[in-house]
Write a structure and sequence with these properties.
Elements: E1 34-35, H1 44-57, H2 65-78, E2 82-86, H3 89-99, E3 105-109, H4 115-121, E4 126-130, H5 141-146, E5 152-158, H6 167-176, E6 180-184, E7 192-193, E8 196-197, E9 205-208, E10 221-225, H7 228-237, H8 259-269, H9 272-290, E11 296-298, E12 312-316, H10 324-333, E13 336-337, H11 352-355, H12 364-372, E14 373-376, H13 384-398
Helix pairs in contact: 1-8, 2-8, 3-4, 9-13
The structure holds ligand T4K.
Ligand T4K binds next to helix 3 and helix 4.
């Protein structure tokens, strides 16, 4: 693989006292902004070779040979029958929910990227927000159960940070109430639950292959499923409902993956294990460095499972001397663009905030978790020295300096 440009100058300053901090006037740790979500990019030459072949062939989109190869590879890797590649994760969510004929109300977490809710609202399906388990940050099945009404038709679990939802428990709730169950697996590519890769759970699972994701196709997404009828329906829906040249048999949209996106996907797919190794190494460096920082805890990945280690998620304890927002401010001054994902929760965003002004009463864990999480930079642009520089800033904040 070819590394993306690494973060600025090294060695970095190590922050030992308050006066070393950029927020107090010292020079920042990094010359350029360090982003959460820098893309993992595979071998440049391999990508350019594929791009050149696309140009030579004159076949740019509409279920081209690379998109088909991409679908075959992904389905085989995940161990599912069908991969229906799409132009992005949001459209993939819309097509999947429509193909499942969800309507009325669908239960989702509020603690997720807003696209999970918007994909429903866009189709005039009402997202009903259920609370999360504060230990896992995923849907709490008991909270889901409490939100079911006669209008409920489905549940969408989100494998947040790539850590799988409680699939078995959600399945039991869905079965008891005759609801459809699917997953937003946007964060979960290459992650497993009980040794089985995310992709085969529920009636279907949706991936995002956005640039910031562990595995990207620039923009892209897919729905994967073992259901032949559902897959066929989604293939029609992503191509305007065309079945043959002049025959439209379904109301559809344009959800197709382009050939250049598939070329990026096939290239990055070849370096997947290397991305995992880099992310894991970053994760271990953060874990070691933060282990001595009282009041900051790193969200851990289950080492007995497969993980992509894409998100470095830190929880700030209530007794920590600085608030989460102050930490973000201090880090931004150092040019470390830490993020407050997924604050303030979908229920506090429009239109949901106006529709359900009291939704927060049912979402205490969403509130407390979203107020104390900060996500730190990882990916192939990062390395151990830079991470130790970042954690030195946090140690000084922890010491109350
Ligand atoms: N469901 C879930 C659970 C999701 O997390 C997402 C997407 C979706 C559904 C929808 O899938 P898509 O329709 O997006 O395929 C970013 C991504 O745009 C979004 O895809 C992602 N979730 C979300 C978690 O993160 P923002 O608002 O944080 O994007 P932005 O532009 O601030 O970028 C994040 C950081 O990445 C920046 O600091 C800069 C850096 N970056 C970004 C891009 C695009 C780069 O270094 N290079 C790049 O090319 O939403």
């Amino acid at each position: 693989m070819t590394l993306v440009k690494e973060v600025g100058k090294s060695p970095y300053k190590i922050v030992r006292s308050a006066t070393d901090r950029a927020i107090n006037g010292a020079p920042p740790m990094f010359d350029e902004p360090i982003h959460v979500g820098r893309p993992n990019i595979g071998n440049h030459k391999a990508f350019l070779q594929r791009a050149s072949e696309i140009l030579d062939s004159g076949w740019l989109t509409n279920n081209g040979p690379l998109a088909q190869e991409f679908e075959r590879r992904i389905a085989a890797f995940l161990g599912v029958k069908h991969c229906v590649a799409m132009c992005n994760g949001t459209i993939a969510l819309e097509i999947a929910t429509r193909a499942l004929e969800l309507k009325g109300e669908v239960i989702v977490p509020s603690y997720t990227f807003v696209a999970t809710a918007h994909a429903l609202q866009w189709q005039e399906i009402t997202p009903i927000f259920a609370d999360i388990d504060p230990a896992t940050h995923n849907l709490d099945p008991a909270a889901v159960w409490r939100m079911i009404t006669p209008r409920t038709t489905g549940i969408i679990g989100v494998h947040l940070w790539g850590r799988p939802s409680p699939v078995k428990e959600l399945k039991a709730v869905a079965k008891e109430h005759n609801l459809r169950l699917m997953f937003d697996a946007s964060h979960g590519f290459g992650c497993s639950l009980n040794g089985k890769l995310v992709g085969g759970f529920g009636e279907c699972e949706v991936f995002s292959f956005h640039a910031t994701k562990f595995f990207n196709t620039f923009e892209g997404g897919a729905v994967v499923t073992n259901n032949d009828t559902l897959a066929e329906k989604m293939r029609l829906m992503r191509n305007f409902g065309f079945s043959g040249y002049d025959n439209v048999i379904y109301p559809g949209t344009n959800g197709k993956m382009t050939e250049i996106a598939a070329a990026m996907g096939l290239t990055n797919f070849e370096d997947l294990e290397e991305f995992v190794a880099i992310n894991r190494s970053n994760y271990c460096t953060y874990r070691d460095a933060l282990s001595s920082v009282h009041g900051l805890s790193l969200l851990e990945y289950d080492e007995s499972e497969r993980n992509n280690y894409q998100y470095i998620v830190v929880e700030v304890a209530p007794y920590f001397p600085a608030s989460r927002d102050r930490i973000v401010e201090v880090l931004h001054a150092e040019n470390v663009l830490a993020r407050r994902y997924f604050w303030p929760g979908c229920h506090n965003m429009e239109p949901y905030r106006s529709y359900y002004p009291h939704a927060g009463l049912m979402l205490p864990n969403t509130k407390s978790v979203s107020e104390r999480v900060v996500v730190l930079p990882s990916g192939s642009a990062m390395h151990a020295d830079a991470i130790r520089g970042i954690t030195s800033v946090l140690s000084v904040v922890a010491a109350g300096a």
